[in-house]
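Entry 14. Structure prediction run on the chain below.
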Amino acid sequence: MTVQRRAGYIQSLPKYLTLCERNYANVLRILPEQQCRGASRLLDIRHERYQVDIEQMAKYTTDICITQVRGAIAGMFTPPMNVRIYHDARVAEVVHPDYHSRIKPTYSYPNAGMHQKDEKYQVNAFLHDWLTFCISHGEAVLDWDCGSDLV
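Output returned:
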């Protein structure tokens, strides 16, 4: 008697890379004009305000953090999104704020953290949807130059 094993979730790498390439093109459109560590941009999207901060810059990568600073519902904010931009590969993806703990490509299900099987793809698809909405409905309010005091 042979036992067949159920195949687990296998992420489509071409589909994921295409998504990250689209994120790269869109995230460049919301970056502060002055691109250096510490630069920020405020974005108003309908009744919400977001801040895009450049946290780290290296030769081939830039780390940004997107934080909601004003919400449509008082006291209700979304968690910040940390995004790593790979300029050499021309892709951008959401990374875990604690860089030692990455978002895994796949998770077995069920798991202790209750992560979805394709959580990495879903988080980056959310970034794509958010960027698309931001570009079509948002407007830049203010850029802070490098080295300026942030309010």
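Residues 42 and 142 are 5 Å apart (CA to CA).
Filed with the rest of this week's runs.
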